[in-house]
# Entry
Amino acid sequence: MFRLWARLFKDNHMIADTVICNDTPDTRTHKVFDAITQICMQFDLGQPVWLDSNINDFRRHSKTRFRQDSFIEQIDFDYLEIQVIEED
# Structure
């Protein structure tokens, strides 16, 4: 089972969160991108752009934050944080 936790933060407070579960035989990369698509649909967001800093953080810690510079449209929160909480 692969589970990814997504949280929206504003002023150091979590304003929304969700957990996306995926037990398909896809690769980890496909599972992450599928989860982000579901997260963006659920939170009514555009897809964030993966910057080099996001890629490096995610590779090292299985966690990253998408700030305003990762989104094309204006966002009304400080950042979206995603974190892998379970993978097999």
